[in-house]
Amino acid sequence: MTPTTEVRPHSAPANATPPGRRFDLARYRDLSLVPVLLVLGVIGFAVSPAFLTSDNLLGVGQQATELSLLVLAEALILIAGRMDLSLESTIGVAPVIAVWLVLPDHGARFNGLGLLASWTAIPLCLTVGALIGAINGFLILKLRLNGFIVTLGALTLLRGLQVAISQGQSIVNLPGSFTYLGRTGWLGVPAAIWICALLFAAGGCALAWLRHGRALYAIGGNAEAARAAGIRVDRITWTVLILGSLLAAFAGILYTGHYGSISADQGNGWIFQVFAATVIGGVSLNGGRGTLFGALTGVLTLQLVVNVMTLAGVPPLWNQFLNGAIIIVALIISRFASGEKQE
Amino acid sequence: MADPSPVRGPVVDADGISKRFGATVALSDARISVAPGESHALVGRNGAGKSTLVSILTGLQQPDTGTLRFNGEPAPAPGDTEAWRSKVACVYQRSTIIPALTVAENLFLDRQSAGALRPISWKQLRRRATELLAEYGVDVDPTARAEELTVEQRQFVEIARALSFGARFIILDEPTAKLDARGIEKLFDKLRELQRQGVAFLFISHHLQEVYELCTTVTVYRDARHIVTAPVADLGQHALVEAMTGESTGGTEPSWSVRGRARTTGDTLLDVVGLGLAGAYQDVTLSARAGEVVGLAGAAASGNVQLGETLAGLHRPQTGAITVAGRPVRTGRVPAALAAGIGFVPEDRHIQGLVPQRSVAENATLTVTGRLGPYGTVLPSRTRVFAQRMITDLDIKTPGPATPVSALSGGNQQKVVIARALATEPHVLVAIRPTNGVDIKSKESLLGTVREVADAGKTALIVSDELDDLRVCDRVVAMFHGRVVAEFTDGWSDEQLVAAMEGMAGPTDPKERNDSHH
């Protein structure tokens, strides 16, 4: 047992200054990575003149979209106090299943079943994603299984399913709707970036201004108290898990369109980056804390570091080492910038 | 705002309430009635049925029999959370505040905006929160995050939230357990103020002093039954404690006896001087001689458990010193305490005592692995022999040393914990609630074991609020709100000891707790 009485200094926070005017550092802790991003920008500019060109920056942005959609999904799930490791497999398996159902059953390198019209590919892909989330939610919330292991199992299972269906090969003959989103640009900027920014903005607004969004913080912070306040904890958690997998499936569509093929290891190993980006962006692994903006700065930091290193001519063989080092350094920075222990 | 409408009878009226859980009778024909604006105390020892009554009054459980009425109307249907919330609210010991959110958001959780798809207007939410807090005179900044609040401020927020649902009847379940004297004072001031606004309280507390300070009526429960309801002024302290404890239950004579021992010989084995741990206890001085069993009595927030844990090295005290057999002990380190000769039986064997999946032998030798083989090895043969000796000595009922400890009965599990504490052959055995959750037979044999330790020339310290545990002691020291308030040698009566543990006049005046925080 620990001492039950927490002794706090009695410098009552109450009504010291009129509400709203006090400078509260806590409000800005989600911005802790912004200076890091600026520093990275300066370094990039110093290292190579190619850095600060719109081509380079848009390229980084487009590369970041798929990862950031997974981060968006994981951030929502973590805020609600859960985890989903299977997102990195969903990004691969959902497009594969959709394409498999749609593609004709003869005449190409990869033969599908040809069951449905090719325009249904995108709705199918999203449905598969939602279904994966729903099954995870059923196992975790109805059968009360351990969420970490359930989604770890789902990660392996779905990866295996993808390899089995695609026979371990990349699928290159894709329906047109898939390739459209990944390749089109609107107003000179890739459509993927627009969509991604829009989804982050929508998610951020929902978390800030909608009751159900705030409910995620309540559930992640203290599920019992949330239940006592009348929040339907299980239903909302389930919805978030479904939404997360849906976003991962959508990220799969963008990724597939971007590279023009579904590779067999699409998304493989991403979950580490996803967690790293989310946590250095200030989302708590214990739930109840963090913002989507913070999570977004987390992804951008990771992506910019890779870009700057590439431009600086760091041998690619060192990339993995540096990536790991960056994650730990960023974690230390955000630990001290926010002043919060990451337990 | 006070409800100006005329009195419509009691805010809550429960009659003939019975509730069984399997073979256990939790409540039997119990009743309670609280008038508007009344501050009503509900007291009783553990297992008296208080918590069951609370869950029935708040609609969490359905009574098997009996009627429940609020303001003269029948209770809402089970599961109709909204309706229950407008009748009654409960502030539990465990906070239902979400630490990362602001006070304003906590107050209006899940009703921050009019509709699910309506965006929340934070400005308006803050205004509503400010109004609500002002209405009940709660001096808390609505924009502060809830984790920045003191414990009593959090309780104020919970009370304000409860009132905002329209409830005029609030149950406070041990609200002072986690408060210091200043916080208790503030809470009571607030409660009196709300009472003047017409809010009725059901106040559940282990501290009878607080009942006398705050309440006008008191109801006593014992063994799942209603014993008495009376105005506080008409029920003296003795009568109240008597109602709580009942007649001394005549059981079989224990195998050990305390009377007639020579206790003035023996060297001092344990000496505690001026020990203080912030938020738990202050300035405790205590000594125990060889051959003596000393009881450290005290209710939940008295600090006696923390004191016992400090002796075992689990907390580092800010002031004071511990000496065992003449040698000072480095505080705050378990290995140091073990090396100095302090054996420890923790409060909860499931949390701190045992590794349930591992064998009896492994659990019993956990403290002495260094002696079970050369060069840091742990030889299975020696472990077995050692454990076998413990099993015989303490009469642990187990198929063998290799049986997983989780397969044993509660009493025998507790014996394994004591075996572990005794394995180091300590000078001082500190046992916190040693008979927690064991049956009557094991209870006797466990206490007999503790007695034997002392008889063998060591010292034992029993930290407990159970009178049965304390009866085995030569001397009982009572603590209340972090201070030693009384000391009893032979021949104390149950009433005297309970009164001291509940913070009422013992041999020493407990009043000083009010000026202990400056």
From TrEMBL, chain A:
<keyword id="KW-0762">Sugar transport</keyword>
<feature type="transmembrane region" description="Helical">
    <location>
        <begin position="85"/>
        <end position="103"/>
    </location>
</feature>
<comment type="subunit">
    <text>The complex is composed of two ATP-binding proteins (LsrA), two transmembrane proteins (LsrC and LsrD) and a solute-binding protein (LsrB).</text>
</comment>
<feature type="transmembrane region" description="Helical">
    <location>
        <begin position="185"/>
        <end position="210"/>
    </location>
</feature>
<keyword id="KW-0997">Cell inner membrane</keyword>
<dbReference type="Pfam" id="PF02653">
    <property type="entry name" value="BPD_transp_2"/>
</dbReference>
<feature type="transmembrane region" description="Helical">
    <location>
        <begin position="320"/>
        <end position="338"/>
    </location>
</feature>
<feature type="transmembrane region" description="Helical">
    <location>
        <begin position="292"/>
        <end position="314"/>
    </location>
</feature>
<feature type="transmembrane region" description="Helical">
    <location>
        <begin position="57"/>
        <end position="78"/>
    </location>
</feature>
<keyword id="KW-0472">Membrane</keyword>
<keyword id="KW-0812">Transmembrane</keyword>
<feature type="transmembrane region" description="Helical">
    <location>
        <begin position="236"/>
        <end position="255"/>
    </location>
</feature>
<keyword id="KW-1133">Transmembrane helix</keyword>
<protein>
    <recommendedName>
        <fullName>Autoinducer 2 import system permease protein LsrC</fullName>
    </recommendedName>
</protein>
<keyword id="KW-1003">Cell membrane</keyword>
<feature type="transmembrane region" description="Helical">
    <location>
        <begin position="267"/>
        <end position="285"/>
    </location>
</feature>
<feature type="transmembrane region" description="Helical">
    <location>
        <begin position="115"/>
        <end position="141"/>
    </location>
</feature>
<feature type="transmembrane region" description="Helical">
    <location>
        <begin position="31"/>
        <end position="51"/>
    </location>
</feature>
<keyword id="KW-0813">Transport</keyword>
<feature type="transmembrane region" description="Helical">
    <location>
        <begin position="148"/>
        <end position="165"/>
    </location>
</feature>
<comment type="function">
    <text>Part of the ABC transporter complex LsrABCD involved in autoinducer 2 (AI-2) import. Probably responsible for the translocation of the substrate across the membrane.</text>
</comment>
<dbReference type="InterPro" id="IPR001851">
    <property type="entry name" value="ABC_transp_permease"/>
</dbReference>
TrEMBL record, chain B:
<dbReference type="GO" id="GO:0005524">
    <property type="term" value="F:ATP binding"/>
</dbReference>
<dbReference type="InterPro" id="IPR050107">
    <property type="entry name" value="ABC_carbohydrate_import_ATPase"/>
</dbReference>
<keyword id="KW-0813">Transport</keyword>
<dbReference type="InterPro" id="IPR017871">
    <property type="entry name" value="ABC_transporter-like_CS"/>
</dbReference>
<feature type="domain" description="ABC transporter">
    <location>
        <begin position="264"/>
        <end position="506"/>
    </location>
</feature>
<dbReference type="InterPro" id="IPR003439">
    <property type="entry name" value="ABC_transporter-like_ATP-bd"/>
</dbReference>
<dbReference type="Pfam" id="PF00005">
    <property type="entry name" value="ABC_tran"/>
</dbReference>
<protein>
    <submittedName>
        <fullName>Simple sugar transport system ATP-binding protein</fullName>
    </submittedName>
</protein>
<keyword id="KW-0547">Nucleotide-binding</keyword>
<keyword id="KW-0762">Sugar transport</keyword>
<keyword id="KW-0677">Repeat</keyword>
<keyword id="KW-0067">ATP-binding</keyword>
<feature type="domain" description="ABC transporter">
    <location>
        <begin position="12"/>
        <end position="248"/>
    </location>
</feature>
<dbReference type="InterPro" id="IPR003593">
    <property type="entry name" value="AAA+_ATPase"/>
</dbReference>
<dbReference type="InterPro" id="IPR027417">
    <property type="entry name" value="P-loop_NTPase"/>
</dbReference>
